[in-house]
């Protein structure tokens, strides 16, 4: 995408330089040519800024999506803590069941 924008800028600059080299003799047509060249350059600059803005917006959305994915993934430290906690709960439950079983004998 960046290469396409760069190529577009080079093409536009090349065409504006070729237009600048051909100067008419008449001053009124010279003014019209300057005006049309400025209008074309501003149109190109506007289009390029829109393209760059859309690229920045897409990059920002991708950044936000990546951050959300990173937050949703569980970490290894959390898994080990949960594993230890689950083991303790299982042991306590087994001890409680055994104590109840011994009470009925």
From TrEMBL:
A biological process from GO: regulation of insulin secretion
UniProt GO molecular function: glucagon receptor binding; hormone activity
UniProt keyword annotations, A-Z: Hormone, Signal
Signal sequence annotation: 1-22
GO cellular component entries: extracellular space
Gene3D superfamilies reported in the protein's UniProt record: 6.10.250.590
Keyword Manganese tagged: no
Top-level taxonomic group: Eukaryota
Keyword DNA-binding: no
Protein name listed in UniProt: Gastric inhibitory polypeptide
Organism: Culter alburnus
